[in-house]
Amino acid sequence: MDVPAVQPSSNVAFHKGERVLLDRASAGRPKQLEDLKRKFQSALESTKCLVGLDMEWKPDRCKENSNHVALIQLAFGGSVWLVRTCEIDLPHFVRQLLKDSSVVKVVAGLDSSDRNKMQSSFGIEVPKNPEEAGFVDISLLARECGFVGSGVKKLCERYGLPIEKNKKVSCSNWAAARLTEDQLQYACDDAFFTLLLGGRLLQEEKVSPSMLRTRARAACDLVLPVAGLSMRTKDMSERRAEVNAFLQELNEAISRACEAEGVAKFPVAKLGQLRDKIGVAFGDRASLLLVPLGARFLKEQCQLFGISKQDHVWARSAAETAPFTDEEKSLEWASAPEKSLQTWLSLQQPRMAKQELLGRLGLLARAFEGVEESAKAFAVRKQACELSASATDSPDPPQRGQAARSAAGLRPSGNTKIVECRPRPLRKKSDPQTVVARGIPKQ
């Protein structure tokens, strides 16, 4: 399948400036803390009261388990301060910065869960309109500009600053006794690139003006040209090739497993148990590559995998993911959607299963989103829904047996039985159970 599974750029941008760590060791004595305070105030003055802000905490696994903020990242131009609030009380000079509305704090996606975290962790209340307290949210700026994707990674790609956002590191234990180098780099990158993106977005014509944003833009114009000198790039082509090879082999293993079990989809929770052609478990390989085998990560690899609402995965076929032709893309999807769908169906291979057709339509809609043809993307998705609601396919189930199970890399078992992938009952809207991880916006 000639489809890139991850971001094609081989160069990745990262922060390589000064890193200051405030933890039990560095801020444990009054004299040390006083020296750090003077250095902190000097850094704030040098950036004209402009700072990039992010927070991390141990992932909340359920609603009842709400962990406090474990790390605060503050980017002062090219230097990033990391405050380990899981080890020390929030220093009073950091608290003052967070509460001071005259300090411009550039953030990414400061939603209600983030505000609740600040309240429960530090007793700091952020108003419903965070700009009243000096917070400039780049996600809000991006939406005002009509950009597709308002997260840090997507926005960095838009401005030619490809960064690495490893989900396994993102959802790691930020309250661990010792942070890894990967965690430290991730934390610095989040605050640093949030600050850089703030400068880029504030220059966009569609951004609504305000006194705070005008002040923020003036500070960005002065500070960020120098801050940009703390950015470096590294060649990630070798790692990208390893991850792409891993995902391609996983795609093939899922196909073999579905054939062996006689089902169309495979549970995401069991992917780690699958084995490659030489008998190595994909869970072990994923750990070595720092690749999460969760539904969220697999959704990002949409060119190779499809994910159901019940967290079951299927492998996309070569026909489903083949490059789109000019004829497919030039159809009048927005003005004549039904006619375009019929013409599009006639262009596809005659033996494509319905699931493949639906998947290909979904990928086509994503392709239009990538070039911001939102009207076309909406029309394609609507036609995919109508096609899905029509008569379903009923293909003959694949052959079952121990030979098929062995080919799929599944361990033999004395009491093996074929398991159907039955959908779980939908949860009622009134069910209050949710999982909030790292303050990721619900949308």
From TrEMBL:
SMART domains: 35EXOc
Region (Disordered): 388-443
GO cellular component, one term: nucleus
Keywords, sorted A to Z: Hydrolase, Nuclease
Hydrolase among keywords: yes
3'-5' exonuclease domain residues: 24-206
Biased composition (Basic and acidic residues): 419-431
GO molecular function, one term: 3'-5' exonuclease activity
InterPro entries, sorted: 3'-5'_exonuclease_dom, 3-5_Exonuclease_domain, RNaseH-like_sf, RNaseH_sf
Name of the molecule in the record: Wrn protein
Gene: wrn
